[in-house]
Amino acid sequence: MKIKPITLKLILMNFLEFAVWGAYLTSLGRYLGNIGLGNQIKWFFAMQGIVSIFMPTLMGILADRKMEAQKVLSLCHGLAGIFMAGAGFYCMSAGDAVAFTPLFILYSLSVAFFMPTIALVNSVSYNALTKEGMDPVKDFPPIRVFGTVGFICSMLATNFVHIGGVAMQDSYTQLISSGILSLILCGYALTMPACPVNKAAGEQSFAEAFGLKAFSLFKDRQFAIFFIFSMLLGASLQITNGYANTFLGSFAADPALANTFAVKNSNALIAISQASETLCILLIPFCMKKFGIKKVMLIAMFAWVFRFGFFGLGNPDFPGVLLFILSCIVYGVAFDFFNISGSLYVEQNTTTDIRSSAQGLFMLMTNGLGATIGTLAAGAVVDACDVFNTPTNWPTAWYIFAGYAFVVGILFMILFKDPQKQKAA
């Protein structure tokens, strides 16, 4: 079967989009721990949630009303790349005296412009496929898979590439590489087909423009429960991104474990999580048909229990390292099953006039409020366990996270009613 040129262009765009993120997302915590900013990790990862509350909406309005989406995408990546590379060059110039404030400001400005690009890439892709007479619902998912491939490739490069004798996962070079990739995508985005600007969008009310009408769903008890639990589960999203690599790196203090694969190549080990995520997407249609939405979401919630619990039980030596591998494998279930089934629940239970806004509200509760609150709470747990001074306390932190996920799962099982059973009744 002949592949259309636009398909190849979109594959490269999605590959680059997530390669930008994969260059630092799972390894930044390890680098911050190395330079004495371990206690500040929570703020770096919370910032991704904070900016996700408002920046995607603002950039979306700009793309709808004033500027073609591919140009907004280019602008955002240009600014994100400049600030992220700037953060890396600041760390290079500061040497052993990296200060929290300047690094955090540069990083925050970068992620503020990067986070909207995830939605913008989708919009640009949908527009390009539609112009070619293709079906976005059918043709985009196989293209999007290459985004995860890009994330994995970037993670592996950060793990295995050494610059100046230092692995990128232990160095500021991960920030510079992310910035360079973002700047490449800044230029590449301009080669995408032009997206329409909807001048009529200016006639929308404030509530319509900002998707506030979807908040009326909170009047429905089941939707209110669903969104609250979306936030509670969203609290789990950034915990392992922020702390898994840092945790694995802490074993380097033990001479007997310092040279094990899991310690020296922790980013490569964690990349199994993204590979699992790609494969688990294929299981969702079968599981949705077999178990229904509520059970699939419950599977995801209890998968988070195992994700955290296996980290607490494992160690880098054999056979303990197998538990780390299992943790990475179940991540695919934990991440995909709730995010995709939750999105389908919104799709199937809302009217067309607020469906897009409701999807935005779902993302706000999970990746915005949930991820922010969860990251800060996780940071408080890590600080209370004093893991940076006493690394042997790490398992306690992981068990607390596992216990939290377990309680959320039990409460969801009790309070949320299966929509299929409700319709049957």
What is the CATH homology-level superfamily of the largest domain? MFS general substrate transporter like domains
State the strand order across the main sheet.
Answer: 1-2
Rg estimate, integer Å: 21 Å
Count of spatially separate domains: 2
Shape: globular
How would you explain this protein's 3D organization?
The chain has 2 domains: 1-194, Growth Hormone, Chain: A (Up-down Bundle), CATH 1.20.1250; 206-425, Growth Hormone, Chain: A (Up-down Bundle). The model has no long low-confidence stretch (mean pLDDT 88). 74% of the residues lie in helices and 1% in strands. The chain starts with a helix and ends with a helix. The chain has 425 residues and is mainly alpha-helical. Helix 3 (41-65) packs parallel to helix 5 (100-131), helix 9 packs antiparallel against helix 17 and helix 15 runs antiparallel to helix 16. The chain has a two-stranded antiparallel ribbon. The chain contains 18 helices and 2 strands.
